[in-house]
Amino acid sequence: MTTKDIQELIRLVNRYNLSEFKLRDGDFELTLRSESFSKSSRKEVVPSMIPIQSSIPAVQQAPVTPMPAQPAKAEPAAQGGTEAEASNANLVEIKSPMVGTFYRSPAPEKPAYIKVGDSIDNGQVVCIIEAMKLFNEIESEVKGKVVKIMVDDASPVEYEQVLFLVDPNA
Hints:
Elements: H1 3-15, E1 20-25, E2 28-33, E3 70-71, H2 83-87, E4 92-95, E5 100-103, E6 119-120, E7 125-131, E8 134-139, E9 144-149, E10 155-157, E11 162-167
Antiparallel strand pairs: 1-2, 3-4, 4-11, 5-7, 5-10, 6-9, 7-8, 9-11
């Protein structure tokens, strides 16, 4: 199964508002679940409707949802620490909810969603993370002022890697 096949399956699951889709073909297994997945609202799709041949090992895709922002961990201040180090304890981290490539703007020729010093609100798009040719808008779960952008544009990011530091009191 190719990436294009998986993307098409994701589109079909969204198009028909399925809460869960499972596909098994030999050693290959694919499970797609929407945000509305619950044990009481299962819909089954007959695998024979989608002709797929593959020898790829088991794959599972969970729904992509923004991770809640979490307070930044304060590092112990060295002797003679500065006031800036102490103020980092009040900052909130916005972390990556997935592995992928980080982009600050929706397109190379367009301006960045946010920059240092901007005020952001809950639900505001702060960046895009590309994973498997799918561009996922990442929304802020905190209101405040952007203090620092921790990742360079077009850089790979890991799951729960800190992307932004936000001061919720500003």
